[in-house]
Write a structure and sequence with these properties.
The complex is a heterotrimer of chains A (about 600), B (about 120) and C (about 260).
Chain A (H helix, E strand, L loop, with lengths): L1 H20 L6 H26 L4 E4 L13 E4 L1 H24 L4 H20 L3 H19 L6 H32 L4 H11 L3 H18 L6 H7 L4 H31 L3 H25 L3 H21 L3 H32 L15 H15 L6 H15 L6 H25 L30 H19 L3 H12 L2 H9 L19 H22 L6 H13 L4 H22 L2
Antiparallel strand pairs in A: 1-2
Chain B lengths: L3 H18 L4 H23 L22 H32 L13
Helix pairs in contact in B: 1-2, 2-3
Chain C lengths: L2 H35 L12 H12 L4 H9 L1 H36 L9 H23 L8 H18 L11 H26 L20 H32 L2
Helix pairs in contact in C: 2-3, 3-4, 3-8, 4-7, 4-8, 5-6, 6-8, 7-8
Classes of the chains: A mainly alpha (about 600), B mainly alpha (about 120), C mainly alpha (about 260).
Chain lengths: ~600, ~120, ~260
């Protein structure tokens, strides 16, 4: 187990440094091959490790420093959800690298090297059981992302996007580290299980509230939750497509994973008596994020920014599942996340290829120009957009159904599925509207708003790429959409996810596994009964689909919002000012508000 | 005063963030980010200090049984310093490019991504 | 009002609400953080396992400097991540600034090649004199990390400074290219790879990644503490390369701008 898990992180690192070492001999194809081999090796190692793990937990100690009373070393504590997410990272890295081999020409070898380090960091992040180690991998992920996003900075927008990305995420990391400092000062431990035990003795207090708020801020900045989300559209709207597959598919989702992991292992022992308040705060935050993301997506005419806001809206839905603080909510989010990540990757591939071929990215300029790309890219785009609209039996359907069930089971949250339906309908409607305009030329071209003009055209050197082959991206997009379908069709998925989620929220079991040298609990916690999507789920799905179709039809017909609503939307758009100072102000305000909320509601 | 170093950390955090928010030059913003980071160094080192403790280096005159300050926070601070230096490097490289391409280093002039 | 005063007033007005809200948010944050730190144990009484850690490192790993023992052995995985951050950032800065540099060089060639200002004699004399001691100091700090304050990171920065002084003292500053970037990149990558290889070595020789599998020697001797010394050197090499790369890329930009 030690070999499998440590090599899963070390192999991409070795390959990445090797590629950087030999970068002066620019051999793009060989470099791509090496990178793919490393990622596939990591994938296989993680799959084998998960298989051996079964439904349990594995704990390995780096440098062979097991705990003697106190924890001294760093561990990897792997369970179904964490290991599964790490595996998903390597799965998404494969299409990302293939697109990189297709699209990146300059300094390609260094790009692959940086990508490999990025993947290694994400895998380590999912597996670790030490809070400071989580922070270090978090930072490594972030810095690799800054470098990869700014990789082809020849135009203004990518440069600005990379700058706001770097500044805002750095502030988030610093607040995260301050929170870690507070926790270490109080408890004297960095291991998550040990911190949980220590904080249990401390109980709810000012330090716990503020530390929780600071740590949550750092992780939620990454996860693009309101009000920390402003950088996301700027950065994801200008990132190269291969990077975007990983950024939009797992990077933000990893912020949520970190939040869930840190909450359940570190803070739940201290704050466990206040589940109701915490549930209310995070479910509302998730719904607000979803609504803002979906609304802003509708208002966008720049395809990449639209996709970025769709990512934000989905993150909101994931946060609702996590915020319900129950095993089935968490299981639903896990299933939803994977299905959605695959579909989003297909969307990014389609949009990236359209931009490359037609040298434009605004809905208006692209009107009807995607007709030649209708098969297979247009079809893949359509299916992926419908997946966002909760199309059965795709992967997102099963996941969302589980989250809706969890919301209905939790007292007082029966209205949540309706709002989730609205969010998905709006986001998918925006995607469908754009798709209809671009791939089928339906309706009038999009309106031109001179107050919010975004850069059109590719980030590239302006060479004529209109005859570039679309075989590879077409195949990739199709494969990703089919993979999302296959994910939804796996029998027994809900039960496996529910078992894994139950283990995830079993804090006492986690602590026993890490601190007690692997001692087994006397009684395993009960797994909540889950079932496949039932009639209610089908009803919500059909409502979402109908809603999305209606929104798309209205959009294509050129209908605009009434005056008052339009003014609100414009005001919200103006808040996304593109200035890092504003974003940092929102982040600081968000951190203070969170801490204040915790202090008021959790005492 | 036994809580003064922690107050210094809190002050650095807040004043650094103020600097970042109201900055009118990208290099100034990056340096203010450095100030915010330094608040975490002060906090980490302060929580590890032991009154009467020695530096955690054993030698013939300092036996292993003497009281020591916490070496773990010093290692954490070292990691933190390296991380911050690298982020500053990347940000400065982006600033140089920004200055070259749009002739301005004013963060308030970054408006291409509005809306 | 003149145009300048009008724009200034407009700028102030634009900043007004944002600064007020930011001030409120930061005041709130300050109050909350002060509340939190007031609950920490009083300054001077740590809650961490300080003495235990020092004793463990001395007796089990024969490392006299506990900080480096923690950095390279106890929490070696953190250090691997940290040096990789430096590695990726150096790579990224170099790629980022190289894009700009290529187009500038083309322009400069078109404008004609005038030589830059000559390096001052005093700089050349003192620089040449200091490079030797700096390099020796750097190597000493890197290799004695497990015995005295210092280690790979600290010594690596000193060595990078020595490298830069060598180029500043020489006429290289006046020439087009500051230094062979390839060599520095290779150094950077070699150091990073070496660390990962030692981690794998722990797996191979002792079935635990990053295990201290080399002979431990006697505390206080130069050749002691097993892999701590080796990792310190690997990090020293990596940091030298990365810092030199970043600084020379930025220096190059300044030289190019200065010539315009």
């Amino acid at each position: 187990m030690m070999a499998l898990l440590s090599l899963a992180v070390l192999v991409p690192i070795l390959a990445g440094t090797l590629l950087a070492l030999t970068s002066s001999w620019e051999r793009r194809r060989i470099a791509a091959g090496v990178a793919l081999a490393a990622v596939l090796a990591s994938l296989v190692l993680l799959a084998v490790a998960l298989g051996r793990n079964g439904g349990g937990r594995s704990v390995i100690w780096w440098g062979s420093w097991p705990p003697h009373g106190r924890v001294v070393g760093i561990d990897f504590a792997v369970d179904g959800l964490g290991g599964g997410l790490a595996l998903f990272v390597t799965v998404l890295a494969v299409p990302a690298l293939l697109m990189a081999a297709y699209a990146i020409r300059a300094s390609a070898q260094l790009f692959f090297g940086a990508c490999l380090i990025f993947v290694a960091a994400m895998v380590g992040y999912c597996l670790t059981g030490d809070l400071f180690n989580l922070f270090v991998f978090f930072e490594l992920m972030s810095v690799s992302a800054y470098v990869l996003v700014g990789y082809e900075v020849r135009k203004r927008a990518p440069l600005e996007g990379a700058l706001t990305f770097a500044v805002t995420n750095s502030v988030g990391s610093i607040l995260f580290l301050f929170g870690i400092g507070l926790l270490y000062g109080k408890v004297g431990a960095l291991n998550m299980a040990q911190l949980g035990v220590g904080l249990h003795a401390v109980g709810p207090s000012g330090l716990v509230y503020v530390a929780f708020a600071l740590v949550a801020t750092g992780l939620l900045v990454k996860a693009a939750v309101i009000p920390f989300h402003f950088w996301t559209a700027d950065a994801y709207g200008v990132a190269p497509t291969p990077v975007l597959i990983l950024l939009g598919g797992v990077f933000s989702e990893l912020g949520l994973y970190g939040f869930a992991r840190v909450y359940w292992t570190v803070f739940d022992p201290a704050l466990g008596a206040h589940h109701d308040a915490i549930r209310a705060i995070f479910v509302l935050l998730g719904l607000a994020t979803g609504l803002l993301g979906a609304g802003m997506a509708l208002a966008q005419h720049h395809l990449r920014r639209m996709l970025a806001f769709v990512v934000i809206s989905q993150i909101g839905l994931f946060l609702v599942g996590i915020g319900l603080l129950s095993a089935d909510g968490l299981a639903g989010t896990a299933i939803f996340l994977v299905g959605d990540g695959l579909a989003k990757a297909a969307l990014f591939v389609c949009v990236g290829v359209v931009q490359l071929r037609c040298d434009a990215i605004e809905e208006r300029t692209l009107h009807g120009r995607g007709r030649r790309l209708l098969w297979p890219l247009g079809i893949a785009y359509l299916l992926a957009a419908l997946t966002v609209a909760d199309l059965p039996p795709w992967g997102t359907f099963a996941g969302k159904a589980l989250v809706e069930d969890a919301a209905l089971k939790a007292g007082g949250y029966g209205w949540v599925p309706a709002v989730m339906t609205l969010i998905s309908a709006l986001a998918a409607g925006a995607l469908l509207r754009a798709g209809l305009r671009v791939f089928a030329g339906v309706g009038d071209p999009a309106p031109y708003d001179e107050r919010f003009v975004h850069e059109d055209g590719t980030q590239g050197g302006g060479e004529d790429e209109s005859d570039v082959s679309v075989v590879l991206p077409g195949a990739l997009a199709a494969a990703l959409v089919l993979a999302s379908l296959a994910w939804g069709l796996i029998p027994g998925l809900e039960h496996a996810a529910a078992r894994a989620a139950t283990r995830f929220i079993d804090t006492a079991g986690y602590a026993a596994a890490v601190l007690g040298g692997g001692a087994r609990r006397a009684t395993a916690p009960a797994v909540p009964p889950v079932h496949g999507p039932d009639a209610t789920a089908w009803l919500y799905a059909l409502a979402t689909l109908a809603g999305a179709a209606a929104v798309a039809a209205l959009g294509v017909a050129g209908r605009t919002l009434p005056r008052a609503a339009a003014r609100t939307v414009d005001a919200v758009r103006a808040l996304h000012s593109g200035r890092p100072g504003d974003y940092v102000a929102w982040a600081a305000g968000g951190a203070a508000t969170l801490a204040g909320l915790f202090a008021l509601t959790l005492s | 005063m036994s809580v003064l170093p922690y107050l210094v950390a809190a002050w650095l955090l807040v004043i650094g963030l103020w600097g970042v928010i109201t900055s009118r030059h990208l290099v100034h913003m990056v340096l203010c980010l450095g100030v915010v980071q330094s608040s975490t160094y002060v906090l980490l080192l302060a929580v590890g200090y032991r009154t009467g403790g020695q530096a955690p280096i054993v030698s013939s005159s300092v036996p292993p049984s003497s009281p020591f300050v916490d070496p773990i926070v010093q290692a954490l601070t070292l990691t933190d310093v390296v991380v911050e230096a690298t982020v500053v490097a990347v940000l400065l490289a982006l600033t140089v490019q920004a200055h070259k391409r749009f002739g301005t280093a004013d963060p308030n002039a970054l408006g291409a991504l509005r809306g | 009002m003149s145009a300048g005063a009008r724009t200034r007033a407009a700028a102030r007005a634009r900043l007004g609400p944002r600064t007020l809200l930011a001030a409120l948010a930061l005041a709130g944050l300050a109050a909350l953080v002060v509340w939190a730190v007031s609950e920490l144990t009083p300054f001077g009484t740590p809650s961490g396992p300080a003495n235990g850690v020092v004793k463990t490192l001395v007796f089990k790993r024969h490392a006299a400097n506990a900080v480096n023992g923690v950095t390279y052995d106890l929490r070696g995985l953190d250090t691997l991540g940290e040096e990789l951050i430096l590695f990726v950032a150096a790579l990224g800065s170099s790629v980022l600034l190289r894009h700009g540099r290529e187009s500038d060089e083309v322009e400069r060639k078109r404008a004609g090649n005038e030589p830059g200002p000559r390096t001052a004699d005093a700089l050349r004399a003192y620089g040449t004199a200091l490079v030797g001691p700096l390099v020796v100091l750097g190597v000493y700090v890197v290799t004695h990390g497990h015995l005295t304050p210092g280690g790979g990171f600290q010594g690596g920065v000193i060595l990078a400074a020595g490298l830069l002084l060598a180029y500043a003292a020489g006429q290289v500053v006046a020439l087009e290219r500051v230094e062979p970037t390839t060599l520095v990149e290779v150094t950077d990558a070699t150091g990073a790879m070496a660390y990962a290889l030692v981690a794998v070595g722990g797996l191979v020789f002792a079935s635990a990644a990053l295990y201290n599998f080399l002979p431990l020697g006697t505390t206080g001797q130069l050749l002691s503490s097993g892999t701590i010394l080796v990792l310190s050197c690997a990090v020293g090499v990596e940091v030298t390369g990365a810092v030199a790369l970043i600084l020379t890329e930025l220096l190059d930009q300044t030289l190019l701008v200065g010539r315009e």
